[in-house]
Amino acid sequence: MLSLTFLSILANIAGSTFAASTFSPARPPALPLAVKSPYLNTWLYAGSDDSGNGGYLAGKWPQHWGSGVTGWTGMIRVDGDTYVWMGDPQVGATTVNQTSYTYTSTKSIFEMDVAGKVQMNITFTSPVYPNDMKRQSLTFSYLNVDVESTDGSSHDVQLYTDISAEWVSGENTVNAQWDYATSGGLSYHKVWRQTQLLFSENMVNNQGLMADWGYWYYATNTSDSLSYLQDSDATRNAFKNDGKLGNKQNKTFRPINDDWPVFGYAVDLGSVKGTAPSQLFTLGYTQEKAVQYNTTDGYLELDSLWTSYFDDEVSALSFFHNDYATATSMSNDLDSKISSDSKAAAGQNYLTVTSLSLRQAFAAITPAIRSSGKTYFFLKEISSNGNTNTVDVIFPMHPILLYLNPQILKMLLDPLYENQESHAYPNSYAEHDLGAHFPNATGHPAGDDEMMPVEECGNMLIMTLAYSQSTGDNSYLSDHYAKMKQWVEYLVEDSLIPADQLSTDDFAGHIANQTNLALKGIIGIGAMAEIANITDNSADSSNYSSISKDYISKWQDLGIAKSASPPHTTLQYGNDSTHGLLYNIYGDKLLKLNLVPQSVYDMQSKFYPTVENKYGVPLDTRSTQTKGDWEMFTAATCDSSTRDMFIKDLATWINETPTGRPLTDLYDTNTGGWPTTQFTARPVMGGTYALLALNSK
Ligand SMILES: *[C@@H]1O[C@H](CO)[C@@H](O)[C@H](O)[C@H]1NC(C)=O
Ligand SMILES: *[C@@H]1O[C@H](CO)[C@@H](O)[C@H](O)[C@H]1NC(C)=O
Ligand SMILES: *[C@@H]1O[C@H](CO)[C@@H](O)[C@H](O)[C@H]1NC(C)=O
Ligand SMILES: *[C@@H]1O[C@H](CO)[C@@H](O)[C@H](O)[C@H]1NC(C)=O
Ligand SMILES: *[C@@H]1O[C@H](CO)[C@@H](O)[C@H](O)[C@H]1NC(C)=O
Ligand SMILES: *[C@@H]1O[C@H](CO)[C@@H](O)[C@H](O)[C@H]1NC(C)=O
Ligand SMILES: *[C@@H]1O[C@H](CO)[C@@H](O)[C@H](O)[C@H]1NC(C)=O
Ligand SMILES: *[C@@H]1O[C@H](CO)[C@@H](O)[C@H](O)[C@H]1NC(C)=O
Ligand SMILES: *[C@@H]1O[C@H](CO)[C@@H](O)[C@H](O)[C@H]1NC(C)=O
Ligand SMILES: *[C@@H]1O[C@H](CO)[C@@H](O)[C@H](O)[C@H]1NC(C)=O
């Protein structure tokens, strides 16, 4: 690691006005700030391709995954001088000096030096509670600020933070409304889109970004040293000038971009010698209704899960805010578990990857509840198109769920089964998704979803068996046996010689005879043989077992370039000059089917290093792009040296990529750049837990 002194010299050489910060374990393309749901999903874009400043919290506005600014400001006054520590408020104040940034699985921690007088530790925690549905149901995030005097003297310190109305809609021309109140020791700003549009998102290029319904809160403890103001830029200037705010609400409700409404807090820390008390802020939103769902029982508007635990929004907010000690201890436990398991599995590089992926993956899934009490999860296919519960997005994500709580996988699959078992879907193969746009899970009664038949039939069979193996819940297999048998018949027809079709990598286009796709289908048949065995359907079991064995032997003739040096599987049958990541072999290893001979694993392990580029191995011969999720699936199937090569390349890419977007899964293996406008902040990065899922079963 470079020493701080050396980095400071570098910063001076580069002509920077700020001293250099360290970044540990890496400087990610975007630093997660409040990342808890598709809408509470705000980052500090760091990479230069997206106008990042290298990862400095002060001087740049935080942004939603869709790139819209979510105004969030921090300032501090020390002995009458004002400094900015977050955002870019135009008040003519200098910025603090960031000295370090560290991320864990649940936290982003900044250390700041303010004029050599005080030190600030700024901790953003977006807790993930895989096994505590009450806590997981809340879409809030913490900002905690610690201040201490560092030069032995006392300093007069006031702290400031605000949010703008930009959080309440992606369209800045719509009206915002707001209020301020206190309740049981809590003070809060409440801000919302004046005209609520239930289940609607503002759409940009057909990508749904932020929610048009729900209520945003910015809360902190009530105290004598707290003051607040709801105004415009005047809020920030008032703090700069006076170090306190006027405790007033300006209720001229107006568009978000009309004299930008700003909702601020100031806390007078008084004379600080040593350490001042921590200041905690909670930011987030509530929606009573989460998702529209269409099932056999008809059309339902599902409630957000938090409504089953709390009487009202402010009770939910108060619970979350006052839960910080527990949240911190549970977050520390989860951070430690992921840290020790990742390091034991493949070292620090692996932890660099897994710890950056946790918040992102979980932020894409939303729990909702029926009046019967049944709970589901709904996934938003963030950024690539917004589909609900896309099967080939759940599939790359599912290792993180097997590792942390396989019941969540079931709760994502349940609505897909309910929809297809209710005859609401006409095709014989498995449905691609539950609806064209989250939060609408209204299905595809006309069967006109994106067609990926072999892909999705294979995915459903593999994930259903993986869930059952992880939990011992065999009745789930019996319950859905008939539907799975329908799908496996499709695979028997179409997996060995797959017709011209899309695989999950649809950006690369249609082709026939895809070697990796065929393997998914054949493993799906092998999974069904095991499912039939477990459910006492012995005739089916021996039938599917012999079909899968026959197919896997033919597949080796069709899909391997035997005379290539070294030999490898192809992208497309018969074309020995092609190759690709054989990531679908992962299903064989995960489910312990032993269908694919070890010789194929060994062959691929030897081959990948021969086609490695600077930042990884290309997805296939059609381009130099790759997918980080599929690289980690592949790594989990290789010998330790090739596995570590994949992991090192992805960790290096995270630290060096010029992209500034929330962790993109698609990137270029030579330049490290990002070849598209999509594939950012997607839950598929849960696939980086592929190795941990193997170990956890
Ligand atoms: C930041 O560091 C630079 C270089 O050491 C120094 O000149 C400047 O005064 C510092 N600013 C603050 C706010 O501490
Ligand atoms: C910030 O964190 C560092 C490292 O954990 C610690 O040494 C320091 O005392 C903390 N400072 C404050 C202001 O809490
Ligand atoms: C906020 O106030 C509650 C009591 O209402 C107290 O339990 C809690 O410790 C306070 N939190 C902070 C961060 O001061
Ligand atoms: C969901 O469906 C409703 C109609 O029921 C529509 O108004 C809304 O725009 C849809 N939401 C999205 C994000 O497409
Ligand atoms: C309230 O805000 C509006 C819009 O910024 C501004 O025109 C008006 O002067 C403010 N009222 C007061 C009393 O400050
Ligand atoms: C619900 O599904 C039925 C068909 O199963 C369809 O006729 C109806 O339009 C759907 N309702 C909504 C709101 O999508
Ligand atoms: C085996 O499965 C195939 C495909 O579903 C079916 O056509 C065939 O009849 C089955 N054979 C037996 C013996 O069950
Ligand atoms: C797919 O592969 C099979 C077996 O090699 C071959 O017969 C068929 O022509 C191929 N189809 C296409 C479209 O290339
Ligand atoms: C399941 O597989 C085991 C091991 O191969 C075998 O002994 C058993 O008979 C099978 N059961 C059924 C119902 O096929
Ligand atoms: C084989 O693959 C290469 C590389 O993708 C391609 O250029 C070529 O056209 C393919 N050949 C055939 C016969 O499809």
TrEMBL record:
Endpoints of the signal sequence: 1-19
Output the superkingdom of the source species.
Eukaryota
Any matching Pfam family:
GtaA_6_Hairpin
Give the Glutaminase A N-terminal domain ranges: 106-341
Query: What's in the keyword line of the UniProt record?
Result: Signal
Give one GO biological process term.
carbohydrate metabolic process
Task: Describe the location of the Glutaminase A central domain by residue ranges.
Answer: 347-692
Q: Does the keyword Signal apply?
A: yes
Q: InterPro entries attached here?
A: 6-hairpin_glycosidase_sf, Glutaminase_GtaA, GtaA_central, GtaA_N
Q: Which PANTHER family match?
A: GLUTAMINASE A, GLUTAMINASE A-RELATED
Q: What is this protein called?
A: DUF1793-domain-containing protein
